[in-house]
Amino acid sequence: MAHTGNSSMHGSSSRPQLLDLSKAEIQGNVEEKYPSILLPNQSHDISYLALDIGGSLIKLMYFSRHQDQSTNDKRMRNVKNRLGFPSNRRSYPILGGRLHFVKFETTKINECLDFIYSKRLHFGGGESRYSDSSTELNVVIKATGGGAHKFADLFKERLGLILDKEDEMSCLVAGANFLLKAIRHEAFTHMEGQKEFVQIDPNDLFPYLLVNIGSGVSMIKVDGDGKFERISGTNVGGGTYWGLGRLLTKCESFDELLELSQKGDNRNTDMLVGDIYGGMDYAKIGLSASTIASSFGKATSEKKGLEDYRPEDISLSLLRMISYNIAQIAYLNALRFGLKRIFFGGFFIRGHAYTMDAISFAIHFWSNGAAQAMFLRHEGFLGALGAFMSYEKHGLDDLMVHQLVERFPMGAPYTGGNIHGPPLRDLNEKISWMEKFLQKGTEITAPVPMTRPGTTGLGGFEVPLSKGSILRSDASALNVGVLHLVPTLEVFPLLADLKMYEPNTIDLSDPNELEYWFKILSENLPDLVAKAVASEGGTDDAKRRGDAFARAFSAHLTRLMEEPAAYGKLGLARLLEMREECLREFHFFDAYISIKQRENEASIAVLPDLLMELDSLDEETRLLTLIEGVLAANIFDWGSRACVDLYLKGTIIEIYRMSRNKMQRPWRVDDFDVFKERILGTGDKKPPPHRRALLFVDNSGADIVLGMLPLARELLRRGTEVVLVANSLPALNDVTAMELPDIVAEAAKHCDILRRAAESGGLLVDAMSTTLDSPRENSSSVPLMVVENGCGSPCIDFRQVSSELAAAAKDADLIILEGMGRALHTNLNAQFKCDALKLAMVKNQRFAEKLIKGNIYDCICKYEPAN
Ligand SMILES: Nc1ncnc2c1ncn2[C@@H]1O[C@H](COP(=O)(O)OP(=O)(O)OP(=O)(O)O)[C@@H](O)[C@H]1O
Ligand SMILES: CC(C)(CO)[C@@H](O)C(=O)NCCC(=O)O
Ligand SMILES: [Mn+2]
């Protein structure tokens, strides 16, 4: 090795490092023999890449940094000062980044080397401006699998990478443990075509049996982190299916072989019990006539020539033979050590429904129903993940489930489970790819909702029920998204019971429900695209991006219609979020920006009149009018078809008035009187005000200005601190935390209460001469503050909120959730540790019928005191 000196420069070789060479300078005398080199930008000694090079496939995991979005604006600094949340947080070297998963065929290792090169992963993810000189660097990366030994020289020669070899088994175990603890919908069962996610309690994970079906099969008893033993294995594995299958069928690819099996009928090749017993069961020992007595046993018939055996049937027989065999050995080993749980990984499974059904059936069959097979969504990436985690300094193993967000980028519906092609470098390449993939045509078409697929079959000894065309093998491939690491996310501390919490109100595993929401989203698409394109000036470029967005989102919808659990458990919140993410992916950062501005201005204009009207009312009427106002103003929702139609018929103020005039109690859910009693008391008894209220706001315009702000004002006036909680990123016409200070400042021009509270909360620092970050101490008002919620979606999942919201929640004793997304689609049934008020107008007929047995435009005022 020519450059061993380098690795000692960075300390031990077990702590590999990547160098950021930008702005590198020679320090001291250049004429010196070994002048030292200053690397001013080398801040983190972390690596970005890990490999698992197996006998059949190369699994690559790489890390990419987020573009720094945290602008650390004044609002944020102010919030930090006010709420005093920890500034000396543990710093994660990989803070704000993404983990990507890619695979290549080992025989095509050049594709893998090219991929690493083109993504500049061989010297730290494109951060360095240096290129070929990097080959002299001897950057060390973690690698596991047999290929880490076999191909070490190649990596050194071609990319200057030194492979630091990690033990394959310990990587598999580390990867599996991490996934089972940190990813919410990782493990699932698969029986008779039905996939069901299993929530594993991280405190009750061990012991388990890990069966990794790669080319060969390893069986590992896992007792804890780093505590394991390889108890068995078998040479009859994934390589056997592919290799023998190729010999017998002349198939050109693994996928082709798998696809053939779907059209197969193994009764032509397998000898069944019925074949031996004249069509009868051998009931005495529990074997039915359809049980396979001998795999390929029928292929001995002298009446048939070899060419009479169909490749389809051969592939199916082989797939069953190997799946059953592995499952049987796995079960016997589980029995040997008394292990109850068996997880199957490795790319032999390939997210293929029939393979999983077969393994599940076999485990069930031999254990007499006592054991159950479970599968992992990141099936083949266990080893690569383990290798990545073996870097000492990432802090990855400290990450918790609430700090990880899995996102499915544009290509997911197409490339899910497939071998990787060339990397897409920029937006333009993405759009071209999208255009090519979906052929020509510029019109935006909504995806046609498809009928739900049947299953590939029973997976048991029966012949597949619905064979062939229904389930393409690529449709059954499990998708693995990009893992976004967001260490600043926290669990909302006021959730009553994290374990019981389920944000989604609607169950999308009900096919009718699913179809309905898919139709809604598809129908809304052309209008959304028009808005998005307009928001970017309506240029040709914007149109092209809009078109690509529509195609990409439609593709997600179609994919999920085919297989609802493809991206993990599907909830409405996820679906709505995906739409926003997809917009952002095509650089539409705020599709509703001009609508939001217009509505804010129109509403601010009528605010003074409204405040005057309110102030003329007695306490009780005022409170009722305020709640009515919130409900009425919640009609402005660009996510609702019915409302968008409404907007065409009148101005925003006309609609607001009409909506308010129509308010009639009792509302469909009406706890107003209980809420009123808590706020105003009864008779002479005046209850103390709430200490701090968190107001989760929804839409821009009338909703925030004429609905929520006046309510906030009332609470402030009563001595309750108010924190407005708004989205971190735009979604539909929702108001964002960035936009709120300006809106509050405008409103404060018309109202002393708001002005003093906003001053006290440090929201008006720009408008005042007081020094930044030191709100007026002599202000007599309780503060009004703004925090971001950590979301970019119309819904909120309280398991993953921003740290500033979590900090604000510490002193809060009232939360008010407003709007359909946050109070109905999600969280209608959520329980909190403090008083909670949920306010929304239902702007969807089906939702109204289903959830509240009411009608569109019915209102909900649900109040649940802390118990
Ligand atoms: N596109 C593909 N090309 C080849 N094999 C595939 C493909 N997709 C799935 N497979 C299956 O996955 C198996 C490889 O799985 P995996 O990547 O987990 O193992 P490996 O690491 O290559 O093997 P080992 O761990 O035994 O060295 C193959 O033997 C084959 O059965
Ligand atoms: C050799 C390995 C560990 C390489 O991943 C794997 O292919 C395997 O476990 N093969 C099975 C060998 C046996 O135990 O019979
Ligand atoms: Mn392997």
Automatic annotation (TrEMBL):
UniProt pathway: Cofactor biosynthesis; coenzyme A biosynthesis; CoA from (R)-pantothenate: step 1/5
Cofactor requirement: Mn(2+); Ni(2+)
A Gene Ontology molecular function term of the record: ATP binding
Catalytic activity, as annotated: (R)-4'-phosphopantetheine sulfonate + H2O = (R)-pantetheine sulfonate + phosphate; (R)-pantothenate + ATP = (R)-4'-phosphopantothenate + ADP + H(+); (R)-4'-phosphopantetheine + H2O = (R)-pantetheine + phosphate
GO annotation (BP), single: coenzyme A biosynthetic process
SUPFAM superfamilies (UniProt xref): Actin-like ATPase domain (SSF53067), AF1104-like (SSF111321)
Domain Damage-control phosphatase ARMT1-like metal-binding: 529-851
Pfam families: ARMT1-like_dom, Fumble
Keywords, alphabetical: ATP-binding, Coenzyme A biosynthesis, Hydrolase, Kinase, Manganese, Metal-binding, Nickel, Nucleotide-binding, Transferase
Record-listed E.C. numbers: 2.7.1.33
Enzyme class: transferase
Entry GO CC: cytosol; nucleus
Lineage: superkingdom: Eukaryota
PANTHER family: 4'-PHOSPHOPANTETHEINE PHOSPHATASE (PTHR12280:SF20), PANTOTHENATE KINASE (PTHR12280)
Free-text function comment from the UniProt entry: Catalyzes the phosphorylation of pantothenate the first step in CoA biosynthesis. May play a role in the physiological regulation of the intracellular CoA concentration.
Family of the protein in this entry: In the N-terminal section; belongs to the type II pantothenate kinase family. Belongs to the type II pantothenate kinase family.
Protein name: Pantothenate kinase 2
Protein source organism: Phaseolus coccineus (Scarlet runner bean)
Species lineage: Eukaryota, Viridiplantae, Streptophyta, Embryophyta, Tracheophyta
